[in-house]
């Protein structure tokens, strides 16, 4: 036998000749072929073959477990407890039939006063509850989902952040593009991030923003006024577009204390990214196949490219801020970026040492706040203006109250905003009827129990907020009507169950931007109504759709008329 290195090389040369001869290889010659191969080489070959076989078996096992065994096991566990659901197609689950049903529903006309739009917003609920009753499950891609509509059980889920984690379905691309952030993190990581941002959203701090927000609103409404004058006293506007200009400015101030060219660049890139992604999630069933989002399709490449551009621009904004703080020997500032940079340094604020964020965390959180901050609020305010235009009697009530509380010059501060009871009732009713985040999703991280139901680890739980907000058992026979009066004596009197009204969720993970969103909404509604009369344009096509948010598909075209000086400021 040759010493090891020589034996190895000899074995290699012999094996190459075996491989070369493979095409003329006959079973009978197998022994002949291996004659003379060194023992070292034989051992190496056997070891490598065993290792490869083990890796392949492990991969196959985990793929079979993920794609076949786990979904089937979860299904069986739920079936044994009396839950039922449709058969599913591997990879895409029940998505194709949901999309097909939804397409049919979306092709039907719907009137503005018809709030019975569950089949457009949450087609899976209508489709499967009709066939299987309330205890149904379905597959969203690979994930097995059940719906929880009972407010007490919803409360249990939202309070138990240990057993129920935030979950994007495994196949969704948003988390891959935006990265891990406050919106999607869990456990200690989430708690640390939440602690960094919470101070910026305290109502006392937001009070200081009133003037900045009011300035943004007034400068945009001045443009409206010019347009109305040019149009001979009446003008058609797409309010969704108009309001999003204001809310973008506000979130830019919250994040970066300004709305300069670079900030606007981030916004445009993120908006485009979000629109492509929204289109993929809502129209392309293949998007739900695991791994699809990393294929080099045109849209996937566009999204990755945009996400990289956003990171690059944010990096430049951070570099400028760093340089300024260093040159002026000042802190990083008290906007959200300032808080994040302070936290990157692990600085001590008061008695608390803030957690250290990484640069990637800062990129991701900037993207999350941009996306979470502008589109949600602008969409909500857009629906509010539509309903005020559709129900002129409520528009008059609100305007009268605004003028009484704020005086002819419409001077506003947070205490005045709190006195606007009618405006508050109207906003609540819009939250109820046009719940812009119509569902929340959690995943069970442990085997646990929810009411009488055993919840196996890995099961997805969907909270259909929209359905809860429209349920006649909770809201009475007029649940499908626009009636802000139901909130006259507060939420507890409007709904059978206090947990039946959750537009901002509740528990530890309630919306961090709730105060900001409500402040902006009241300021914008008050300023708009004090200067303009709104009515629905005949060009408006009512087409509410669930596109990540409950959105007016074709914008909201309203007729805007300048009010005479006696009624306006
Ligand atoms: C009308 C406007 C808004 C509505 C209806 C709304 C609604 C919600 C809801 C329902 C959640 C919980 C989602 C879940 O648990 O699955 C949430 C979370 C969140 N929202 Fe909002 N939101 C609005 C505005 C905003 C604004 C203006 C910001 C930021 C400036 C914001 C930032 C966030 C963040 C970061 C979270 C995650 C909080 C956490 O998990 O700790 N939202 N929002």
> Helical amount among residues, as a percent range?
55-70%
Query: What percentage of amino acids are in beta strands?
Result: 5-15%
Determine the structural class based on helices, strands and strand pairing. alpha+beta
Largest sheet: 5 strands, mixed
What's the mean pLDDT score?
A: 86
**Strand numbers in spatial order across the main sheet:** 1-2-10-7-3
Bound compounds, each kind once, are: protoporphyrin IX containing FE
Question: Any idea what the radius of gyration is?
Answer: 29 Å
For the termini, the CA-CA separation is 102 Å
Query: Helix tally?
Result: 23
Unreliable stretches (pLDDT < 50, length at least 5) are: 1-6
Family: Belongs to the cytochrome P450 family.
Organism: Sphagnum jensenii
Subcellular location: Membrane
Pfam families: p450
Features:
single chain, 569 residues, alpha+beta, five-stranded mixed sheet, three-stranded antiparallel sheet, 14 strands, 56% helix, 10% strand, globular, disordered N terminus, binds protoporphyrin IX containing FE
What are the SSEs and their pairings?
Blueprint: H1 4-20, H2 30-34, H3 39-80, H4 95-106, H5 118-121, H6 123-132, E1 137-140, E2 143-147, H7 151-159, E3 164-166, H8 174-178, H9 187-197, H10 203-207, H11 210-230, E4 234-238, H12 239-256, H13 261-283, H14 298-328, H15 336-344, E5 348-349, E6 352-353, H16 359-390, H17 392-406, H18 414-419, H19 421-433, E7 440-444, E8 448-450, E9 453-455, E10 460-463, H20 465-469, H21 472-475, H22 491-494, H23 514-531, E11 532-536, E12 544-547, E13 549-552, E14 557-562
Parallel strand pairs: 2-10
Antiparallel strand pairs: 1-2, 3-7, 4-14, 5-6, 7-10, 8-9, 11-14, 12-13
Helix pairs in contact: 1-3, 11-12, 11-23, 12-16, 13-14, 14-16, 16-19, 16-23, 17-19
The structure holds protoporphyrin IX containing FE (HEM).
